[in-house]
Amino acid sequence: MSVLLSVQNLHKTFLQRQGLKQVSFDALRGISFSVEAGQALALVGESGCGKSTTARLITGMMPASSGSISIQGTPLVNLKKRRQRMIYRRAVQMVFQDPFGSLNPTRTVRHHLERPLRLHRSELSKVQRLHRINALLERVELTETDILSKYPHQLSGGQRQRVNLARALAVEPSILIADEPTSMLDVSIRLDVLKLFRQLKEQQQLGLLYITHDIATAQYVADETAVMYSGQIVEFGSTEQLINHPQHPYTRLLLSSVPDPTRSYQALLEQEEDFRHQADRIRQFSRRPGKEYRKHADNHFVLLQE
Which CATH class is domain 1-72+177-188+206-306? Predict the structure, then answer.
């Protein structure tokens, strides 16, 4: 399979003001990964670990401090002309976390789906655009007859996220970035949305970068998983191998946080204090700079830290 997205030794440093001083904060510390056609990679970690910063760098919303990002072999930094940037934006699309905030409340569903076609597929006629919109709605399983005339507030959370997904797919991207796409949805409809992502990845040979704090959903969607903490990838590889045989203490910590319906509430209360102290120790260790990756098994690597 061909490599669609390649990220190499990516760094991002922010400057923060503390009183009269400016101090630097390393949001990303040399992360590397790749995504192939028809493959889903999950970036997993808690809030503040650098997942969303990675997505913003890949989409060109902000520049990297150092390192490289390439789409189908073309480095992002080489895109100087407007036409080149438009081609890149068509190739890389993003589905955001908040299904309501990412839609204009004063515009209909039809407007949200027609606008990317006007920008990136200007050769299409009005009839062709409508045919394309109807095909997109069918693809994301929005089949209500009057859906195009509805406004975001008239839709459920799951419907709004499907509109966001249809909008991203309108320009036929090769890379789709999904940033916590189910975290604001009801539990009852999360599985349907995840199933839709998996189907699209397989049927259209999309490269999917799935960003989440929930390692359990990564298992359902992703072929490979990279666990992030404090701007570093601490463990990565085959999702099945990583979840069944975690090597880094932070990966084990994430897995131990997944709710277990077989454990009683009283047992959780008794364990809570020990778990909190253990979690603090693991996080302190996981902040240490990494030296290199050790191969644990085929397609399974863990960061060695000082």
Answer: alpha beta
